[in-house]
Amino acid sequence: MSVFRRWLEGEADYPLLDGWREAPPKTKKPAPKKRDDRKELRGFLRVYAVCAVILCAVLILCLLVGVMRLPAFAAPGNPTDNEVGRRYVSSAEA
Which member of 3, 38, 86, 87 has the greatest number of CB atoms within 10 A? Predict the structure, then answer.
C-alpha cells in the first residue's frame, strides 16, 4: 500500500505535509546604518552652486567675446544699412 493511500485512510501522516502550516522562523536583519542625508544634501548643494557659477561665468565670457568682435558703431568702414532699406522699398512698390 502506498504512503498516500495510508494517509488517505488515516493510518499514517503524509510526509510531504509535515510542517506545511508552520511559518518559517523569522530572522532578525541587522538594522540599516543611518545615513546623514543632511550632510549629503549640503555637499550636493555646494557642488551644484560651484558648477552653476562656473557655467554662468563661461556663458558671460562667451557673450562678452562676441560683443567685442562686433564692429564699432558709426565707424567709417562699416557697411550702412541704407542700401538694404532702399532695396526693400523699391521692391515693394513694383
Answer: 3
Q: Where are the domains of the chain?
A: 45-71
C-alpha cell at 36: 546623514
Three-state SS letters, the chain: CCHHHHHHCCCCCCHHHCCCCCCCCCCCCCCCCCCCHHHHHHHHHHHHHHHHHHHHHHHHHHHHHHHHCCCCCCCCCCCCCHHHHHHHHHHHHC
pLDDT tens digits along 28-46: 887 777 777 788 889 999 9
pTM of this structure: 0.46
